[in-house]
Amino acid sequence: MTTSNIIVLVAFAFYMLLMIVIGVIYSRKTKNNEDYFLGGRNLGGWTAALSAQASDMSGWLLMGLPGSVYLAGTGEVWIAVGLLLGTILNWYLVSSRLRKYTIVAGNSLTIPSFFQNRYRDKRGVIKIVSAIIIAVFFAVYTASAFSSGAKLFATLFGHGQNGEMDQTAYLIGLAIASVVILVYTFMGGFKAVCTTDLIQGLLMLVAILAVPIIAYAILTWDQGFSQALVAKGVENPENYMNFFKNTDGSPIAWNSIVSSLAWGLGYFGMPHIIIRFMAIKNETEVKKSRKIAIIWVVLSLAAACLIGLFARGYLSQQLDAGNSETAFIRLIQEIFSNNGVLIFIGGIFLCGILAAIMSTADSQLLVTASAVSEDMYKGVIKKDASEKSSLLVGKIAVVVVAVIAFLIALDPNSSIMGLVSDAWAGFGAAFGPVVLLALFWKRSNLAGAISGMTVGALTVIVWDYLPLINGDTIGTATGLYSLVPGFFLALIINVIVSLVTKAPSKEITDEFDSIKTLEI
Q1: Rg of the chain's alpha carbons, rounded to an integer?
Q2: What are the φ/ψ torsions at residue 43 (nearest 5 degrees)?
Q3: Does 35 have pLDDT greater than 60?
């Protein structure tokens, strides 16, 4: 192992040890399920904002998105535009109302329990359906984070031939990332996760802003950016930097732009993000969080796209589709390589990638644990379960989902962007319409919510996984992101079924009306 690798390892070890220490500290403060799963509803503005956005922007922000832009140019930034619009709408439409409604609706600790309390589901059917959807799609989502950690480790410390990823290094990295995330999530719960997310969110922002600025300054010191691109094999820089053209000069297809913008719809159904809204201390902190979060996401998305562009002109060795997701890692390695001090600074910036990975995986594990513990075990299987036994079941669920995610991520050729895309579509289609209608449509009822949720999840699965058109999936054949049909079919079915079945009781509608004037 080289001296450079040792220095970077020291930076990594210090960072990961800090995360574990935070888990230990908060393990002593966790007394019950509300503490473990929702932090006692006591999050401040900064913590809530950066925790929500850090848990949202996983390894795909610093690896998947830059990799896509690196390969195809600015035509790929439509995903970032969609995510920005989704973030803004989520904070303005959902955050405040969901926080109030979950308190009034039986002090709901999880999204499934909110659905049950909102619709007075005495049999717990909607909790079971919700919990199953969460367990299935979060296993895939968590796998994307584990895979990001493994690729980070393999790129830094592996020695594959001809730029190929070393599988042994990948597996070691996968094991290390999985264990560290598992340990502090298992021990400290929601407060530990949110505190680490605050640190990780700040570190991610520093890394993602500093590196492209430095890269651009070096790159354009004695030449124009277009010249740098041409020197690295980009034949038509004007196409590469055009929002509406592919690199070959052809116009970007409408379904590609629609699919990219549709990523914004997913926010309304992301349990690991909207649960932060439920935990904010008060309305004042909600307003503060909203501003911080939007500024953070504008800066981070813009910088992630610039990283992909600048890496294409900067890197000495060009990357193919199989390695493009390592563009940010390799950019840091080339910039910070002259001496021990620079290498250590580069190691800190690489910790920003580790932060993006860990901040999402920990949140996903915790939401899955709450779904299993609160919604399935205590909500249906054993309703008289003690706090202690319920908490234990939740922690066991953390371990089980982590193991499943580990197994999914074992393939070093798996695409981070692909895994995130599948899970994002699943949650957005299954939960997004239900959340919006539960919050803003009084006539929405239990039958409509369950029907819409089921149709949304199944549409995504059928669209993405079943080869129904000449051996291809519908998604491959049409080029349309599964979230688009999944979200709107779920919304339509929810509305139709709600209208043709029994209207909600007066108790439910009175509770709905009370949210308008409620101050909590």
Answers
A1: 23
A2: -75, 135
A3: no
